[in-house]
Amino acid sequence: MTLPRSFYDRPTLQVARDLIGKVLVHRSRAGDTSGVIVECEAYIGEEDPACHASAGRTRRTAPLYGPPGHAYVYFNYGMHYLVNAVTEAEGTPAAVLLRALEPLDGVEIMRRRRARGTLRRPEAFKPHELCRGPGNLTCALGIGRAHNLGDLTSGGLVIEDRGLGSFPLGWGQRIGIRVGTDRPWRVFVPGHPAVSGPPSRSRRA
DNA sequence: CGTTCGATGCACT
DNA sequence: GTGCATCGAACGT
């Protein structure tokens, strides 16, 4: 079932925690792609220096101030789209950045998208690297500008509860930011091969 | 193993 | 003009 708007209309850290194990689905012309969310990060309010809303309400950050359950998609470093789920009541700027998925449906489509424009062949991608990292997962699912402000509770890009059960949770510092690094607002499935960041110590045999 | 660094577009001041 | 919520190739150890 698709997550209802009330799921997102809650404290952002709770939403981030509960998004682990849910499924991001994109139904596109090329076919359906989906994956289990195994890593995400909370960005909360104008007082969070890493949150885009710290710059106040601008054309870029307007989606953060909008109603919960919508997508905030933006373009970064000149080459990557990043997708967030907007949380909390309208007027309260906050969101959860989706950082990694375990691929479920459409793995071959993901391979083709990831390989496009590279020298690497599609079949060279291992499943767990297809959606590891926020820029990689949007590439694999074909998420772009057009999805900004889209409704995650209905339409082509949605988040579903497929009853996959509970996952072990780890919390830590957010990755790739230069300010607000003290807040432990990153949630992930410890040791999962699709999780981004430095390889876990426990990976050694 | 580890770290560094270039590519690349755009919103914002 | 500046600075990114990144990625992966290219180094050094």
Describe the structure.
With 205 residues, the protein is an alpha+beta fold. It has a single domain (5-188), classed as 3-methyladenine DNA Glycosylase, Chain A (Roll). Helices cover 18% and strands 26% of the residues. It contains six helices and eight strands; from the N terminus they run H-H-E-E-H-E-E-E-H-H-H-E-E-E. It has helices at residues 5-8, 12-19, 62-65, 107-115, 127-130, 134-141; strands at 23-28, 31-44, 71-76, 80-86, 94-103, 157-160, 170-172, 186-188. Strands 1, 2, 3, 4, 5, 6, 7 and 8 form an eight-stranded antiparallel sheet that branches. A hairpin with a 7-residue loop joins strand 4 and strand 5 (94-103). The chain is globular and about 45 Å long. Residues 200-205 have low confidence and may be disordered. The chain binds a DNA duplex (13 and 13 nucleotides) through strand 3, strand 4 and helix 6.
Question: What is the topology?
Answer:
Elements: H1 5-8, H2 12-19, E1 23-28, E2 31-44, H3 62-65, E3 71-76, E4 80-86, E5 94-103, H4 107-115, H5 127-130, H6 134-141, E6 157-160, E7 170-172, E8 186-188
Antiparallel strand pairs: 1-2, 1-6, 2-5, 2-8, 3-4, 4-5, 7-8
The protein binds a DNA duplex (13 and 13 nucleotides) through residues 41, 43, 50-52, 55, 58-61, 74-80, 82, 84, 97, 99, 133-136, 174-178.
